[in-house]
Amino acid sequence: MSEKLLVVFYSSTGSNTQLARWSKEAGEAFGAEVRIRQAQELAPDVAIDSNPLWRKNVEESKDIPVATSDDLLWADAIVFSSPSRFGVMASQMKQFMDLQGGLWAQGKLANKFVTAMSSAQNPNGGQEQVIQGIYTVMQHWGAVIVPAGYVNVSTFAAGGNPYGTSATIDGEGTMQNAANVKAAASDQVTRLLTITKAYLAGK
Ligand SMILES: Cc1cc2nc3c(=O)[nH]c(=O)nc-3n(C[C@H](O)[C@H](O)[C@H](O)COP(=O)(O)O)c2cc1C
């Protein structure tokens, strides 16, 4: 039986969409069954239309369903990916988490294997804090957190964040050092699934 991997992201201008798509690819390469899902957009059209990159990302990610509680129930392992918003996760991602109080109260979110990724405009624009914020919620859910650590050389080339892959996005929306970030994200997902698989085999 293959591992069930859920990739949940929020993205305005496409960078976390890209991290999520790379995560999906890595999950499929591992042999997992993968669902990719996005947090429900909360911003009004007037805000989205104020930034052509934002509208472009909305159009280009239309095929990706909105994340639901059922996706969480289904998953053995989860990748979360959110941009930095003043050093915390995007409100859209937090809203998705906040909607899970019912499942949490029933103990149905416990024992999921999770890891997280993030992006910001600056190399130190809050990526570490965003990932730690996601991990804080995961501790409340009783998840098993699988950080990137320093176990793959790709982590160093991507900027050396042991909490999870971090991307830096310039003012034009271009991801810096993208090939190395892709490699780190892929290795992070492979590590998540390797540990999930070992746990499921021993159950
Ligand atoms: C409201 C808001 C707050 C932000 N705060 C920061 C910040 O404090 N530091 C930073 O480097 N980037 C900040 N950014 C930039 C975003 O993190 C960056 O655009 C995002 O990571 C790109 O990811 P996306 O393409 O998936 O939307 C902010 C962006 C917005 C819209």
From TrEMBL:
Belongs to the WrbA family. It comes from the Bacteria. This is NAD(P)H:quinone oxidoreductase type IV. SUPFAM superfamilies: Flavoproteins. InterPro entries: Flavodoxin/NO_synth, Flavoprotein-like_sf, Flavoprotein_WrbA-like, FMN_Rdtase-like_dom. GO terms for molecular function: FMN binding; NAD(P)H dehydrogenase (quinone) activity. PANTHER family: FLAVODOXIN-RELATED PROTEIN WRBA-RELATED, FLAVOPROTEIN-LIKE PROTEIN YCP4-RELATED. The gene is wrbA. The lineage of its organism: Bacteria, Bacillati, Bacillota, Bacilli, Lactobacillales. It comes from Vagococcus allomyrinae. Pfam families: FMN_red.
